[in-house]
Amino acid sequence: MKKFRFTKWAAIAGVVSVAMLSSQIVEAADTALKAIAIKVKVFAGDNEVALDKEAVTINGSLYVPVRAMGDALGQNVTWDNASKKVTLREYPFVEGKYTWMNPPSLGLGLKEGGFSGLLHMPGDPDNVFYTLADRGPNGQITIDKSVNRTFPVQDYVPRFYKIKLEGGQVTILETNKLQLPVGAKGVVSGNRNTTGLSNIASDEKSYDNTGTKLLPLDPDGLDLEGIAYSPSDDTLWMADEYRPSLIQVKRDGTIISRYVPAGDKAKLANAQIPIVEAFPAIYSKRIVNRGFEGVTISPDGKYLYASIQSPMAVPDKATGEASRNLRILKMDLATKKVIGEYVYVAEDAKTFVNVSQKDVVISDLHALAADVLLVDERDKNEGAAAQIKRVYKIDLSKATNVLNKSDISNNVEALSSDLLKASGIATAPKSLILDLTKLGYPFEKFEGLTVLNKNTILVANDNDFGVGEYDANGVLKLTDKQTQVWEIAVKSLW
């Protein structure tokens, strides 16, 4: 993770223009030649490049600091003092890959997995992060032509981790399981543990490992997908796909509150987590298991942003699955009130090969500043078939707040780009920051995104706990998919 700085020199290239202003003769190191210091201005196109050392001429050749050359060429420059080697690399590039080598066992041959989100907390070392896992190992088995969702580890407790990246490996520093408030007892767990089971009858049904026994509903069940930090009160916020909802959590894993769409509190009878109706009622029309996926908080701690994973079933599921319009909410953390709703337009699946529009989703967010976000947009493919594994930068201050425009907000998914424009609705403008397919990214579920500094993005994948499909005998097969965190250098985020 260490970045090197140096002041070696390199001859100027033709793509850079130089204006000479003045000169001064100095002795060139380790040579009898005279080095003449030259005050110059170096430009890459119309943009001036800052020089950390003056340029010089030696024996008629002009030399400028190699770092300035790298900046002018839009490339990263590193110096290896041991080998005396200068390396220029074009942005973006992979600086490190870190693998979770030996996850703890969960039984039945299953191991812990993830990661469904990623967070670097202010003040932590540059190689320490937080991440989380979702509802636990689950698979799909066909029973009498019905595809049933199985939960092989029924006592799995949703959790988050503090991790360290070092020596190519992910090391778990802390594991915190999500706990109900002190004194509460879950209707399924019988204690303070949460579960990953579905909440209500209209959710996807939960079955045991055989796919034949229906498991109980848990009004406090969670399917966690995103993680953010609130510096104002030292709490964590996590995105849940089920309702959709956001949960506020103490550092030790104790849940403070769960924020849900208007009208959902009554559906969660016997819930032990305090329920707050905070989001428009229409968010209850999310497509099953396509609720909140990304959550982030502005660096000043004032605003929280949450993204829906897919277009919602508005007015129906078919419309949602064909739509490109996703929603991003903005909450004032001082009041816990939603103050903004914006339209984000996903890539057009028709311009790609074997990509379905319903599978082009938002998987995470990261706030660079108030209203300026990075968005993790991906398709369902992996390996060579993957085409959309991208990070976009958006500015919501340039998008229309549709929160109080009921004619728009109640119909976002059904509106074409032409209708949005005709209605005076500006969608979130997108600029491409990173395309992971060009870096050989092998995973389908690029679900974690965070920023270390203006030149470093980190991404993580969800390996689904290594769960595969069921064979003809009803035996769950496992995969060798790993969980990795990639450190990627980018030119400049701000």
From TrEMBL:
Pfam families: Cu_amine_oxidN1, Phytase-like. The keyword Signal applies. Keywords: Signal. Residues 33-87 form the Copper amine oxidase-like N-terminal domain. Residues 113-465 form the Phytase-like domain. The keyword Signal applies. Residues 1-28 form the signal peptide. InterPro entries: Cu_amine_oxidase-like_N, Mao_N_sf, Phytase-like_dom. PANTHER family: BLR7070 PROTEIN, PHYTASE-LIKE DOMAIN-CONTAINING PROTEIN. This is Esterase-like activity of phytase family protein. It comes from Paenibacillus albus. The lineage of its organism: Bacteria, Bacillati, Bacillota, Bacilli, Bacillales.
